[in-house]
């Protein structure tokens, strides 16, 4: 990972190629500046114009932004719409009906194409099936499904009937799933028998069974199961139903239910700095507007593009840039079931070549591991594939270090494709800081400038603006249409986490540090300022992992910190005190393995600590507070040069130096 220093020194500038600029919808910096000026002049009018032009409203809005109960902002409140109508029905009459919406490629390489008309029918049948099960507008539905046409259809079907979905990534454990079911008060779980990734069949339905057996999920009435592999599963009579049996008898039309613009389209759980994940609640109108606008602004989406976002529907990227944005814009997109390394590390490039992908959007972690693989094996080097169809690349989820940016630019983009380094978060709903590829000159490692209308700034802890060149807190000073609306069941935490008093109560605190370039004002994100880690672009709270560790009966105490990692950005390093004496040698290795498996069971494999170190104690202040900043230094195997005068037990540092 590059340090802030190396970002600061980055002086290479790459202008978007002339060809790209000439053909782009937002062409040249004048066009970008004109949009920014329009927003500055009449902020609400700007968004209202875009909302009228992009979204199809079943009842037009007359209200624009309501700030009367800040920070519970409302956008286009009296307008009504249906998000699924906007993604599907609109294409039946605009010439897109027979256009391919989804090109699905399974883990083993089987390709299925689904047109807009076909997808519309599948979603309608699915929606009618949900209605038959008694699911209604406002009900919450958990989706625990793999990357699949059915997974996307499940989300769209919920949107169609006004049910609020909450997708749980297939890598989360039964316990994580149970917690989300309970918090959301969900009435049904949509799942599949298995998911297939990297040549392996992984059970999903069995995990749903386990989650429900953990108790407290009494709100769940039905479990709908998509048959992916046909492998063995347990069936609970009366509760479980096969998806194909549910939908086969349904009509292929289902009237979309109009909902208010503020109706929660979905809740998506993400990690925060306390132990409990936050249910980020998004709206329907403002969210959809953003999904569409950013497809146009950051991706310059065009009717003949073959677009591919590699994110799973279990994350926000898969919501905005797989299920909603591309479909609302009538794009053709690739949906990939598998993983980048299977059957080998050339899989992504092989698929780009085969499907003639024009826009490719992935995470720096994937890029870094593919660089490694290409260095190790010439057969999977991107130069072995025809990538000439590509015209635009995107990056998301974590800072992209300039070296990885350059490799991506040269080896994948052939130095002709702009790279959209899109900064955003589960909470922002979509991109907020990103180059506009036909306008913004790019600097490796910088997400460049805020999208038009986004009042991003870098401030100090008291909310004062900082001069360019000074690092501070990233904030957004004005509400924007796709922002988080609430934390499900926890408005107090919503206010405290994102709109702290210190910043005036109405300014959105992103939770990231940032610095702006002295000359250009370009933003570079310097990483989280809270106890949230970013592992392979996935967010994980240190407290969540600590709670999981101490829930193990042999553990007395645990502290988790992030450690820079060449491939995954950050990795998890846990310092653990056992109730028994400190183990060493093979025994320590064995216990570390048991604890890793334990965390996988408690949260999911993505939360497994890469490294576990055992001590008789943790470094603490006299008042008993764990000194995490020292643990961060130890994890990096660096020498502690910081002040340790408040440390009560300095001898412990020596013990914790060694990894097991
Ligand atoms: O730290 C930032 C990092 O990812 C966090 C948001 O994670 P999540 O809500 O899971 O959403 C990921 C997909 C948008 C941010 O707080 N992050 C995201 N994009 C970038 C980034 N850091 C630097 N550069 C980015 N382009």
Automatic annotation (TrEMBL):
Protein name, per record: Acetyl-coenzyme A synthetase
EC numbers: 6.2.1.1
Keyword Transport: no
Positions of ATP binding: 397-399, 421-426, 512, 528, 539
PROSITE patterns in the record: AMP_BINDING
Pfam family for this entry, one: AMP-binding
Residues recorded as bearing N6-acetyllysine in the entry: 625
PTM description: Acetylated. Deacetylation by the SIR2-homolog deacetylase activates the enzyme.
PANTHER family: ACETYL-COENZYME A SYNTHETASE (PTHR24095), ACETYL-COENZYME A SYNTHETASE 1 (PTHR24095:SF14)
Binding-site residues, Mg(2+): 550, 555
Cofactor requirement: Mg(2+)
AMP-binding enzyme C-terminal domain boundaries: 544-625
Function: Catalyzes the conversion of acetate into acetyl-CoA (AcCoA), an essential intermediate at the junction of anabolic and catabolic pathways. AcsA undergoes a two-step reaction. In the first half reaction, AcsA combines acetate with ATP to form acetyl-adenylate (AcAMP) intermediate. In the second half reaction, it can then transfer the acetyl group from AcAMP to the sulfhydryl group of CoA, forming the product AcCoA.
InterPro entries linked to this entry: Ac_CoA_lig, ACAS_N, AMP-bd_C, AMP-bd_C_sf, AMP-binding_CS, AMP-dep_synth/lig_dom, ANL_N_sf
Residue positions binding CoA: 197-200, 317, 536
Organism annotation: Herminiimonas contaminans
Domain Acetyl-coenzyme A synthetase N-terminal as annotated: residue spans: 32-87
Catalytic activity from the UniProt record: acetate + ATP + CoA = acetyl-CoA + AMP + diphosphate
Keywords: Acetylation, ATP-binding, Ligase, Magnesium, Metal-binding, Nucleotide-binding
């Amino acid at each position: 990972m590059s340090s802030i220093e190396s970002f600061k020194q980055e002086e290479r500038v790459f202008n978007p190629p002339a060809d790209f600029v000439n053909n782009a919808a937002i062409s040249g910096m004048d066009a970008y500046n004109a949009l920014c000026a329009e927003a500055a002049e009449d902020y609400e009018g700007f968004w209202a114009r875009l909302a009228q032009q992009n979204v199809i409203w079943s009842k037009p809005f007359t209200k624009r932004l309501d700030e009367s109960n800040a920070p519970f902002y409302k956008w286009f409140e009296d307008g009504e719409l249906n998000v699924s109508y906007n993604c599907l029905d609109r294409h039946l009459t605009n010439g897109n009906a027979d256009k391919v919406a989804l090109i699905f490629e399974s883990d083993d390489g089987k390709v299925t194409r689904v047109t807009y008309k076909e997808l519309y029918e599948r979603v309608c049948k699915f929606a009618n099936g949900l209605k038959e099960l008694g699911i209604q507008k406002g009900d919450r539905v958990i989706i625990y499904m793999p990357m699949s046409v059915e997974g996307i259809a499940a989300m769209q079907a919920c949107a169609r009937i006004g049910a609020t979905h909450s997708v749980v990534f297939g890598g989360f454990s039964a316990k994580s799933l149970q917690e989300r079911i309970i918090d959301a008060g969900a009435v049904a779980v949509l799942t599949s028998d298995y998911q297939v990734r990297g040549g392996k069949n992984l059970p999903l339905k069995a995990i749903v069974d386990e989650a429900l057996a953990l108790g407290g999920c009494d709100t769940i009435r039905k479990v709908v199961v998509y048959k992916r592999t046909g492998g063995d599963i347990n069936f609970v009579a009366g509760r479980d139903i096969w998806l194909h049996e549910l939908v086969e008898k349904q009509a292929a039309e289902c009237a979309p239910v109009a909902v208010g613009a503020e109706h929660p389209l979905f809740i998506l759980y993400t990690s925060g700095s306390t132990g409990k994940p936050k249910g980020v609640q998004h709206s329907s109108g403002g969210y959809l507007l953003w999904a569409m606008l950013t497809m146009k602004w950051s991706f310059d989406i065009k009717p003949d593009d073959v677009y591919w976002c590699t994110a799973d529907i279990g994350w926000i990227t898969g919501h905005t840039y797989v299920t909603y944005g591309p479909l609302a814009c009538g794009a053709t997109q690739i949906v990939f079931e598998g993983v980048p390394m299977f059957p080998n590390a050339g899989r992504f490039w092989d698929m780009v070549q085969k499907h003639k992908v024009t826009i490719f959007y992935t995470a720096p972690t994937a890029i870094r591991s593919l660089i490694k693989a290409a260095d190790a094996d010439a057969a999977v080097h991107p130069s072995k594939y025809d990538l000439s169809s590509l015209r635009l690349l995107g990056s998301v989820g974590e800072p992209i270090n300039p070296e990885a940016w350059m490799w991506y630019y040269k080896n994948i983009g052939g130095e002709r494709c702009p790279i959209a380094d899109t900064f955003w978060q589960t909470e922002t709903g979509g991109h907020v800081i990103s180059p506009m590829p036909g306008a913004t000159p790019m600097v490796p490692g910088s997400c460049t400038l805020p999208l038009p209308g986004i009042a991003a700034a870098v401030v100090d802890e008291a909310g004062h603006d900082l001069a360019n060149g000074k690092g501070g807190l990233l904030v957004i000073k004005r509400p924007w249409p796709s922002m988080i609306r609430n934390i499900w069941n926890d408005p107090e935490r919503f206010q405290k986490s994102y709109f702290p008093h210190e910043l005036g109560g109405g300014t959105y605190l992103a939770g990231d540090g940032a610095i702006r370039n002295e000359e250009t004002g370009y933003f570079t994100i310097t990483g989280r300022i809270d106890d949230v880690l970013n592992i392979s672009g996935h967010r994980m709270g240190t407290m969540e992992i600590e709670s999981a560790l101490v829930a193990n009966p042999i553990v007395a105490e645990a502290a988790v910190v992030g450690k820079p990692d060449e491939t995954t950005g950050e990795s998890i390093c846990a310092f653990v005190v056992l109730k028994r004496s400190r183990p060493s040698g093979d025994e320590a290795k064995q216990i570390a393995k048991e604890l890793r498996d334990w965390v996988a069971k408690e949260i999911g494999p993505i939360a497994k600590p890469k490294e576990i170190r055992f001590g008789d104690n943790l470094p603490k202040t006299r008042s008993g507070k764990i000194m995490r900043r020292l643990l961060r230094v130890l994890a990096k195997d660096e020498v502690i040069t910081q002040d340790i005068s408040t440390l009560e037990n300095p001898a412990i540092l020596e013990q914790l130096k060694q990894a097991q």
